[in-house]
Amino acid sequence: MKTKPKLICPICGAEYNGPVQRCECGEPVEFEPFKGEPYLGKTVWERFYDFWPVEPELELSLGEGDTPLVRSKLGKELGVKLYLKNETVNPTWSFKDRGTFLAMSYALKADYKAVGTVSTGNMAASVSAYASRFGLNAKILVSEKTGDEKLRAVSVYGADVIRVKGDYGRLYFDSLKLGERLGVYFINSDNPFRVEGYKGIAFEIAEEVTPDYVLIPTSSGGLFRGIAKGFLELRESGLIEELPVLVAVQAEGCSPICRAFKEGKGRLERFENPKTIAQAIANPYPPSGNAVLRLLREFGWPCVSVGDEEIIGAQRELAGEGLFVEPASATGMAALEKLGESGVIPEGSKVVSILTGSGLKALSHVEGGKIVECPIDELENCLR
Amino acid sequence: MKTKPKLICPICGAEYNGPVQRCECGEPVEFEPFKGEPYLGKTVWERFYDFWPVEPELELSLGEGDTPLVRSKLGKELGVKLYLKNETVNPTWSFKDRGTFLAMSYALKADYKAVGTVSTGNMAASVSAYASRFGLNAKILVSEKTGDEKLRAVSVYGADVIRVKGDYGRLYFDSLKLGERLGVYFINSDNPFRVEGYKGIAFEIAEEVTPDYVLIPTSSGGLFRGIAKGFLELRESGLIEELPVLVAVQAEGCSPICRAFKEGKGRLERFENPKTIAQAIANPYPPSGNAVLRLLREFGWPCVSVGDEEIIGAQRELAGEGLFVEPASATGMAALEKLGESGVIPEGSKVVSILTGSGLKALSHVEGGKIVECPIDELENCLR
After folding, report:
1. Which of A281, B168, B312, B325 could in theory staple to A219 by disulfide, Cβ–Cβ 3.0 to 4.6 A?
2. Key word Transport present in the record (chains A, B) (predicted)?
3. Cα-based distances in Å from A23 to A176, A233, A287, A297, B366
């Protein structure tokens, strides 16, 4: 059995023993660093057992994690070795499942009967699926703008989908408070267990390659913090020698973290009128934004924003490698082109780009290719 | 390097050394049985290296195969131990990728410049993706009824999509002939390499459990033949003692194999006016139908058909386990209920059901759940 680890605020340093999600200073808390050694095992949960804050409920696992690291020839032109970490083959087809599984393992042990989340996309589907799997009720709060079509892939798992009229931006904080009062455990974007679950991405990468750069699509900041914590713990445990450079990648049309970073601000401000095709990373006021800013400054890591045109181009290039991803997942590749051309990422580097979610999730955004009409008797000509 | 294995017709016994796809008698040929031993390795391609008819192009792999075997509580009521083989987490989100990868490895070595397939669904996406990955042109022949929306997930990979006007049923055979003439390697539903690729499902299952029954959604028959060949080769190699009972599962609205089986016919007939929600297995004249019939008869295996109502119910139950599958994938679970209740599958049995493809592929068929509207100031009440 795991002993109960402490929670620490990465901004003000306050410590907590209870199961809080945010520090009194307003920032997200995180588990103290773990040290350990790897074991033999089929799943990332077993191999890196020492590094989880809660015993993973392996009997209820859906096989999240242990995703392929795919070699790509797309780095060739830039002279870099590119690897694509394909998170689209998780049980609900996005990286969210890693964090959801770990948070759900906690919720079950803590005897919650209901869980919730604030999301309209990947996280909503993930929490719905695992809640159902774990036998818990799920309350999914979505914005009033979300169409029925998009919600089908969420409600199919049997969750209570609640379309909230009013300021959607408030919901992240409101839901945590209400959840505490009502006994509903809200697993929002940067929930501490969720962040821990994402460490598995770093662990699996380190098992296969020693990257110089890792490109991370960044919205709430939960994924970035998780991967960073994973590499840091590997280094502290003596399992890797040097940290890779982690690159926070945002869409230009919604880049509050990159903007604050460039302007040298310590705290970020809400990004007004966000507009980007990369819907899955379009959070105008990321709850882990300040924590990510701090990491970027501490380690000298870059923040890069890319435009919709570049994103669409990169999505097409990735499809040419056989990997159809949602626009948010293509931002890493778009950033690589920018960083490679400007010399920030030098030739010969080993680069990993995180592909966060399946292209099937945002099919309506995809430009269809040309379709040729052909009478069957002329098939031979059409095939030439 | 692999030596060149022979191809054999499972119906008339004729043997071929060249790369034919169909026997002169009209039936599909298959590779002679392989024997071997398993090795240590990360991928199914490495661990079962002895069993493939062609050297897999591992550098070009997208990480197909090695899918999770998920424990399910859905067998509880029937007193069976149920495992779900989740093929929805393959690179294009269906089992087709296993066969496509192996066939593509052959096409590359045989120096083809173009490949093709006849499909509107999972196989079309899979062949498009891998052709692009392997640097080959792809010709995807779809029926004139296929909508643009559905083809987006295919054309995104850069394939030439050709909408053929005329008798779609003829295309399977026409394409093989034309392909031979034009140097386009057609990887249709029961291409011999494709069938070999599906053996991996049997191999991976056998690594984890010793099943008494395996439930297999059956359309063209390629998947069924592949899994059967896999278990047979494991037995011949002394790696398992007994074969599981393989259950061919079809949708009632398009069940040519089950019908011929029940009527005691040696050859199947075209199923007129097929109509089922399980689109992915709605082939009215399966090219491997007679070969499947022969396997069922030889080993005394059952063929079970299930209705659309049962399929939809099973799809909902699987979603309740956190696994959202396309209707075709739910047929196995629907068949289990039928076979369990009627006592054909006895209590205490270990059963594996194959989940062939992602629910995101047929999202428009899914009945959405209830969505509650809630003003933000009443959120507390809505959450109770």
Report:
1. A281
2. no
3. 12, 22, 12, 21, 41
The ipTM, to two decimals, is 0.95
Task: Judge: B166–A361 Cβ closer than 8 Å, yes or no.
Answer: no
Distances (CA, A) of B107 to B57, B99, B193: 11, 12, 10
Single-letter amino acid, residue B182: L
- The reported pLDDT for the residue numbered B232 is 98
**What pLDDT, in 10s, does the model give residues B155-178?**
999 999 999 998 888 899 999 999
Local structure of A3: helix, strand or coil: coil
Residue B380: CB atoms within 10 Å: 13
Nearest to B6 by CA among B20, B14, B17, B21: B17
pLDDT of residue A4: 85
- Residue A259 to residue A247: CA distance in whole angstroms: 14
Q: Decide if A354 contacts B140 (C-beta within 8 A).
A: no
Q: Tell me which residue has tokens 């060949």.
A: B229
Task: Specify the amino acid at residue B369.
Answer: G
Q: How confident is the model at residue A298, as a pLDDT?
A: 97
CATH number of A69-91+193-365: 3.40.50.1100
Subunit contact A161:B361, Cβ cutoff 8 A: no
Chain B: residue whose CA lies nearest to A138: B383
* C-alpha distance from residue A257 to each of A42, A201, A218, A308, B58 (Å): 37, 22, 9, 17, 39
3-state DSSP call for residue A200?
A: helix
Mutant choice from B156, B323, B372, B384 vs A, greatest count of A C-beta within 10 A = B156
Which architecture, in CATH terms, is B69-93+193-363? 3-Layer(aba) Sandwich (3.40)
In degrees, rounded to 5, the angle at the alpha carbon of residue A306 between the alpha carbons of residues A66 and A72 is 40
- Going by the DSSP 8-state scheme, the letter that residue B281 receives in this structure is G
How do residues A64-110 score in pLDDT, each as one tens digit? 999 999 999 999 988 999 999 999 999 999 999 999 999 999 999 99
Interface residue A145 vs chain B (CB under 8 A): no
CA-to-CA separations, B74 to A82, A330, B209, B315, B340, in angstroms, rounded: 42, 38, 17, 12, 12
Domain B95-186: which topology?
Answer: Rossmann fold (3.40.50)
Domain boundaries, chain B: 69-93+193-363, 95-186
What's residue B369's pLDDT? Answer: 79
Q: Quick check: B353 and B332 in contact, CB under 8 A?
A: yes
Residue with tokens 């070795």: A81
Rg (alpha carbons) of chain A, rounded to whole number: 21
Amino acid at A323: L
State the CB neighbour count (10 A cutoff) for residue A77: 10
Contact assessment for residue A127 and residue A159, using Cβ atoms and an 8 Å cutoff: yes
| Residue segments in chain B with a per-residue pLDDT below the cut of 70 | 1-2
Q: Can you give the pLDDT at residue B289?
A: 97
Which H/E stretch holds residue A374?
strand A371-375
Q: Looking at chain A from residue 297 to 316, which residues have their Cβ under 8 Å from any Cβ of chain B?
A: 316
10 Å CB burial of residue A98 (0-12, 13-18, 19+) is buried
The whole-angstrom separation of Cα B29 and Cα B300 is 22
What number of other Cβ atoms are within 10 A of residue A375's Cβ?
A: 12
Ramachandran assignment for B354, one of left (phi > 0), alpha (psi -120 to 50 degrees), beta (any other): beta
> Does B371 reach chain A within 8 Å, measured CB to CB?
yes
